[in-house]
Each structure stands twice: as structure tokens, then as C-alpha cells.
Write a structure and sequence with these properties.
alpha+beta; 18-stranded mixed β-sheet; 4 helices; about 15% helix
């Protein structure tokens, strides 16, 4: 298997191009190749596949073998891969995702390479049962939840995959190693959930740390940053545009009021290439 190792703000992926469909053993393959001690090491295995609806389709298999509906950092990596490798020769393209449909991408090119990627992440899903949660409400904002004897409040958002955004006093130094997996598998979330722990610095700057469903702690989460901005705007603590600072770097998120779409802008990097046998 020929692969390219890439990352978006430290959220890293094994990117594979050239297949027509996912291999039958893709779940176990992802577990093996994503293993950081005995494999290549990554948060997920990403396949760039043909699409009848877009320029390409993207499928993401988490490091635990489960499939993710969407991933903001992965779509930036895929966008950079297809342009930098000459698979597309324009600065706009469309990528089909499993959970968020076809997403439009705009590239910033410098010296023949992609430097920034702006992704139309679509409209956020706010209805409780569609996220999904077991809470039947048009929106879930600052809803109480208790784990490990501690009480928190969360705002729920889906960006094609489900998110639970929780304000804490100091996100940068918050130890979520225990409650992260407990929240991921909480009974309120029938398909599990991604969990963002956030601290709002001002109306245009938020610090975020993430426990990703199926991957655990990662340095960045693009859909999580989008969910963080939407949740913070719903709570009235930020504007509809802000810098989201993650452990791996910054993303710039806008929740556009005219079309209700969320736009994410950030970088992607190639690390190395190889062959896995």
C-alpha cells in the first residue's frame, strides 16, 4: 500500500490514493497502520476515492477501526494532496464526504503548492435527535450533564458528525483523560460523540482541546473547531467569526449569517511518503 503521511495542525493521517473502493479489511488495516508503536502511526486512515457527485470522495477510518462521517483536518489534507500531486489544476474543487455530503473547497496557492484551505463545512445541525442525542429539542444549549461525580454543561452541534462542547476554566491545561472517554460513550449520545473542552478568551478567540470519538486525544479537530464556534455563538459569548486555538495551531472559523454555512480556514502539510506491506 503506497501512502502519504499528512497532518492538519498535528491531527495526522495516512492518506491513500489510487483505489476504487475501500478494501474489505479496512477496519483492521486502520488499526494496524495507525498504531504508533507497531505501525506507521496516525489518528486515522484516509482514502481518496472516485465520486459521481464531486471531484473526489473521502472516507476516514479512525485509529480504532470505526468510520468517521467527516473530518475537517482530513479534508484539508485531501485537498492539498490532490492539487499538489497534479490530480486537479484549479483552486476550487468539491469533495464528497460520508456524513456532510459534498463540500466545496477553495485553495490558496503559493509557489505551486497549497498553503491554505478554506472549506465550506455546510450548515450546522442543531436539532437534538438529529445530532444525534436522546434529547428531543430544537437546540441543546448549556444542557447539564454529570460524569465521574462532576457536573458540566454542554452545547450539542453536528457538523456531519456529532459534537459536545463544554466550557471549562482553563482548556489549555484541563485534564480530560478520564472524563473524555466517559463523555464520548455517555448514554445521552447513541452514536457516541466528539467532546470539545473550551475557554473563551474574548468574542473572537477561543481555546479548545478535544477528545475525538474513535481516536481519543488529538492535537486538532476541524469539525470540532466549527462546532465550538457555533456553540459559543449560540451561547452569546462570541461573535460568528473567531480564531479557534488548538494544541496543534489555529483555525479560523466563520458561521456566515447569509447562508448559515460554517467556513473553516487552515493549513495542511505533507510529512513523508512510503509503502506499507
Amino acid at each position: 500500500m503506497e501512502f502519504t503521511k499528512m497532518h492538519g495542525l498535528g491531527n495526522d493521517f495516512i492518506v491513500v490514493y489510487g483505489e476504487r473502493e475501500l478494501p474489505s479489511n479496512v477496519s483492521q488495516l486502520a488499526i494496524d497502520v495507525c498504531n504508533r508503536w507497531y505501525g506507521i502511526g496516525a489518528d486515522g486512515l484516509v482514502y481518496i476515492l472516485p465520486s459521481e457527485r464531486a471531484d473526489f470522495s473521502m472516507r476516514i477510518i479512525n485509529s480504532d477501526g470505526t468510520e468517521a462521517e467527516q473530518c475537517g483536518n482530513a479534508i484539508r489534507c485531501v485537498s492539498k494532496y490532490v492539487y499538489d500531486n497534479g490530480l486537479i489544476d484549479r483552486d476550487e474543487l468539491a469533495i464528497e464526504t460520508l456524513g456532510a455530503g459534498v463540500q466545496k473547497v477553495q485553495l490558496t496557492i503559493e509557489n505551486g503548492k497549497v498553503e491554505k484551505v478554506r472549506v465550506d463545512m455546510g450548515e450546522p445541525i442543531l436539532n437534538g435527535t438529529k445530532i444525534p442525542t436522546l434529547i428531543d429539542a430544537p437546540q441543546i444549549v448549556e444542557h447539564p450533564i454529570e460524569v465521574n461525580g462532576q457536573k458540566y454543561s454542554f452545547t450539542a452541534v453536528s457538523m456531519g458528525n456529532p459534537h459536545c462542547v463544554i466550557p471549562v476554566e482553563d482548556a489549555a491545561n484541563f485534564d480530560y483523560s478520564v472524563i473524555g472517554p466517559m463523555l464520548e460513550k455517555h448514554e445521552l449520545f447513541p452514536k457516541k460523540i466528539n467532546v470539545e473542552f473550551i475557554t473563551v478568551y474574548n468574542r473572537n478567540h477561543v481555546e479548545m482541546r478535544v477528545w475525538e470519538r474513535g481516536a481519543g486525544p488529538t492535537l486538532a479537530c476541524g469539525t470540532g473547531a466549527c462546532a465550538t464556534l457555533v456553540a459559543s455563538a449560540l451561547r452569546g459569548v462570541t461573535d460568528r467569526e473567531a480564531k479557534i486555538s488548538l494544541q496543534g495551531g489555529d483555525l479560523y472559523i466563520e458561521w456566515n449569517s447569509s447562508d448559515n454555512h460554517v467556513y473553516m480556514t487552515g493549513s495542511a502539510e505533507e510529512v513523508f511518503r512510503g509503502r506499507f506491506e
